[in-house]
Amino acid sequence: MKKILFVCLSFTIYSCKSENEIEKIKHYSIKTKHQYNDLVQGEYETFNIKRFDKNKDKAGNYIYSLNDGTKVIEYGNAKSGYFTEETPNNSLFVISKGYYINLGIRAKGITYGNIGCVLGIWYEFDENGNLIKETNYDKPFKIAIVDIIEFLKVNKADLNVITTSVSRFYDEETKKAKWTLIYRGKYKEKPGMFIIEIDDSTAEIVKVVKILGKEGEKEILFEK
Predict the structure, then answer these.
(1) Which residues lie closer than 8 Å to 7 by C-beta, 6 or more apart?
(2) pLDDT tens digits for 194-206?
(3) pLDDT of residue 21
(4) Residue 175 sits in which domain range?
(5) Using CA atoms, how far apart are residues 44 and 97, in angstroms rounded to an integer?
(6) Residues 11-37 pLDDT 10s
(7) Residue 175 placed within a domain
(8) Are 94 and 132 members of one domain?
């Protein structure tokens, strides 16, 4: 079965003199285990339905903060199951959890960005609470999320706004991976809104598109 894995990305460009010169993403970290993996462990847990039903708003969400500053959003229902998103204080990473209708944990792991880019090790459980699968979604990729974050910072992108998104996918049939980054900031010192595609195997930026105006017109600045 063909699987496409979506997740996050980053990179930092080498300085270049030519507009058409191929740029590569700079690797800031080659660690096999990233710090965000410590945010989630493989233990069983349950959803607190009594607290949720008591405190949820009209939209069906319960939003609150823990003593350590972690922001928590709970939502869901008896048909779809229940979900939580926990964002540690001053963190770019989100601890995402899904629960069965019987309130037992179904899956949990780390996401990044407004499209929920999947990162690191994810844990999956059966309805009886047994841990049945651990998947490392970072394994197929060479570029690390820390590289992505650094690239965005260098290029003046706001990491916390909805207009900034980072995604990646890995095709298990072709064994090829690609990153896509959308942000408002700068590229080669030019301001604007950009879409950038990167070949994960070579770390080369293979396409740069500038979004023009509110109508979404696009200008291709570079394509390999």
Answers:
(1) 112, 117, 118, 119, 137, 138, 141, 167, 168, 169
(2) 999 999 988 889 9
(3) 57
(4) 145-223
(5) 11
(6) 333 333 344 555 666 655 544 457 788
(7) yes
(8) yes
The pTM of this model reads 0.81
- 67 and 124 co-located in one domain: yes
**Which of residues 86, 105, 136 is at a domain's end?**
136
Give the Cα separation of 221 and 207 in Å (integer): 8
Rounded Cα distance between 208 and 190, Å, is 12
Residue 160 domain-assigned (yes or no): yes
Give the number of other Cβ atoms within 10 Å of residue 207's Cβ. 16
Question: Per the structure, how many domains does the chain have?
Answer: 2
Residues 93 and 163 in one domain: no
Positions in the chain short of pLDDT 50: 1-19, 30-32
For β-strands 165-171 and 176-187, DSSP reports them as antiparallel
123 and 168 share a domain?
Answer: no
Instruction: Read off the tokens for 141.
Output: 């990729």
> Are 132 and 188 contained in the same domain?
no
Alpha helices per DSSP H over the chain: 49-55, 145-154
Q: Is residue 54 domain-shared with residue 132, that is, in the same domain?
A: yes
* Nearest-angstrom CA–CA distance, 90 and 84: 18
Q: Give all strands (DSSP E) within the chain, no chain letters.
A: 4-7, 62-65, 71-77, 81-87, 93-99, 105-112, 117-125, 131-136, 165-171, 176-187, 190-199, 204-212, 217-223
Looking at the domain assignment, is residue 20 inside a domain?
no
